[in-house]
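chain below, 870 aa
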Amino acid sequence: MAKAKQKEAKETPLMKQYNAIKAKHPGALLLFRVGDFYETFGEDAVLASKILDIVLTKRANGAASHIELAGFPHHSLDSYLPKLVRAGNRVAICDQLEDPKEVKGIVKRGVTELVTPGLSFNDNVLDKRRNNYLASLHYGKENMGIAFLDLSTGEFMCAEGSQDYIDKLLQSFTPSELIYSKASKQKVQEALKDQFTTFHCEDWVYQYDYAYEKLTGHFATKNLKGFGIENFELGIVAAGAVLYYLEETEHKEVKHIAAISRIAEEKYVWLDKFTIKNLELIYPQQDGGVPLIQILDQSVTPMGSRMMKKWMVLPLKEKDSIEERLKVVAYFYENATLREDIFVHLKQIGDLERLISKVAVGRINPREMNQLKKALKSTMPIRDLMQSSENSSLKKLADQINSCTFLLEKIDKELQEDAPMLVHQGGIICTGVDEQLDEYRNLAKSGKDYLVALQQREMQKTGISSLKVAYNKVFGYYLEVTHVHKDKVPEEWIRKQTLVNAERYITPELKEYEEKILNAEERMIGIEQKYFQALVLDAAGYVTHIQQNARILASVDCLLSFAHVAQKNNYSRPKISDTDALEIKDGRHPVIEKQLPAGEEYVPNDIYLDNENQQIMIITGPNMAGKSALLRQTALIVLMAQMGSFVPASYARIGIIDKVFTRVGASDNLSKGESTFMVEMTETASILNNLSDRSLVLMDEIGRGNSTYDGISIAWSIVEFLHNHPKSKAKTLFATHYHELNQLADDFPKIKNFNVSVKEVGNRVIFMRKLREGGSEHSFGIHVAQMAGMPNPVVLRAAEIMGHLEKDKAMHASKNNLKDMPKNNYQLSLFDMDPKFKETKEMIAKIDINTISPIEALIKLNEIKKKLEA
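prediction:
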């Protein structure tokens, strides 16, 4: 105890204050405002200096030795804060709560905001075209609850379901930060590894009664029935924890979080986490790759881009909803002029969704308020264009747009068009709004004119031609005279400062006018702040209306984008069908076709699947022939159609799919101790355990991660299982290099064989990339090896082995078959028996097999043949 007191006494008062605030936020990096700087101390300083590349120094801490220090100017916060947050830090911003000029001793300080990766309004932290979600996870006995909040837009959602479903949502929404209860720490670490920035809260935060009360208190409702989540206990617990976390991080202004919605599992296509990854919907799997979103997202507003991502990971499975989107896309597709007219106005909107959130929390600046006015002005022509259209869905959307006329007129009347970013810079309120403000402005202006006149008068009176009237914060206004004219200075002037080349003076007259001018400027800023705050308060009354406008404009932006892409890339409107058939004619891969070299056309293909006649297509063909692309394009066409987009095909009839599963490609997960084969089997098990009658299953090269016989056996049994499933007739494309699987079509009526055709020209293989009926005979693997530049000896030996295996294909005794394999390690002794053979041996010895061309080899072979026949 005595030691603690002694240590306390040794600390400087400033460090004592710092340590007390730091103790309240132990997990956060504390930015401590000292004068014009934000400082960090101790371990925070070491970390900040590394992340921000700023100088690390030391300062005295009273008698308590020295402490590390690193800081930056307060006006640079917007530059440095994003770097700290993106590095995964929670950052507590501690500001001065009093004016240092009016306080004796230590200035009162406190944390005004705790910025975390998932909670920020800072434009430099946020990515305009992506949502910034905070996720909250809650484990029940069997299922799990999850909630997502984007503080910057006010979007709040929750859901509950199995571990697989929650994993899929995490993959879809990719939160920037995830919170959970302390008791769940081990489960979260095992399930999610290090995928997300995480933070754990105390267990009592994740109690149902507390969470329910928190949500009803926030929304001022008696229950949660109106939001459709009343019976979602686990989801409610997760969502309640989000509101608690907002309070803990000093985010107290949250009126813009006006509702919570349920992510309705039954409305959207099930895409498991493997499928979202394998199909490269949002992110490419390889550096430099192109995801589907990059092709489809031609939206011109940030909120349109964010909505497009949600549509992509949550495709619809209700026919009416899909048709409504398709009708609007078709109308835009056929009316290019209307499309262009709306695009012109949409480009002026900016990020309306995040702007109105800033209004709600009182963080909007004058320049952003003008952007809000611009957005409101541009919204009206869009509404008028939609209302004058002949499309009922567009008219319905137009009717839901609020004009917000009063707010628009008020901003237009009161706010200067070229208002600066900061309120205290002045010049933000228009002339004619307030009489007193106009008087002070005239006084400030005339005062400055007076100073110019004073300068001219004193120059003439004293004969000092270089006389200047200037201003600084230390002396206020002063007269500056160079040393050359020092002897001309009148006696009544009061000298204040001597410089190398000049002297600075003040006069009673100058001080009198300075007081008038400075008082006028101070009062002007006070009045302007009062008007701007009132303007923000008025705008806050329109938050829900403008949020609705933003959602409608985002939808229109997405639908316009679909129409634009469809016209540009020659897509056609899909037919959404109640039948179980999936029929695609001349289907293309939307991403690959855009990557082809100039002049090269993508080879289109047809696909037909149904539940009765052709449920499973087994597709054989060599590697590199295009099997994987064919599988992926089928899934992408289905998903695009059910998003409401046109598709890359001449014709598509889509019997609505409710689940899409893919097992495409394999990559070792060695860092987590899983082999290729283990990853493959885990993903396949997930598919087989979650099938439905309207599932689309894509399987590529199942079993290749193991021995041939294991691989064939597993692939064979999977196809049988899919065909014979008692409840679910999942439509399946099964690409394989195991030609033995073609035999399945003989025994199972709904299995059909297809192959991706190739053409042999001499010893070369040309990939036709065209799907044909029937299985293929062999894989052309040796030809592919040759094309890849494999050394000739390896290719020749492989051909010899393959010839032997194919010759004895009928034999089932594999061990004998391999025993009889022609050996590659014997020495030829027959050359010693005959002079002819000796000459032949010498001829062969001179041939360099690694460099000889096929034609030369044939000529040489002919010579050898003639020599032996002679």
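The longest strand covers residues 751-761. The two ends are 112 Å apart (CA to CA).
thats it, cya
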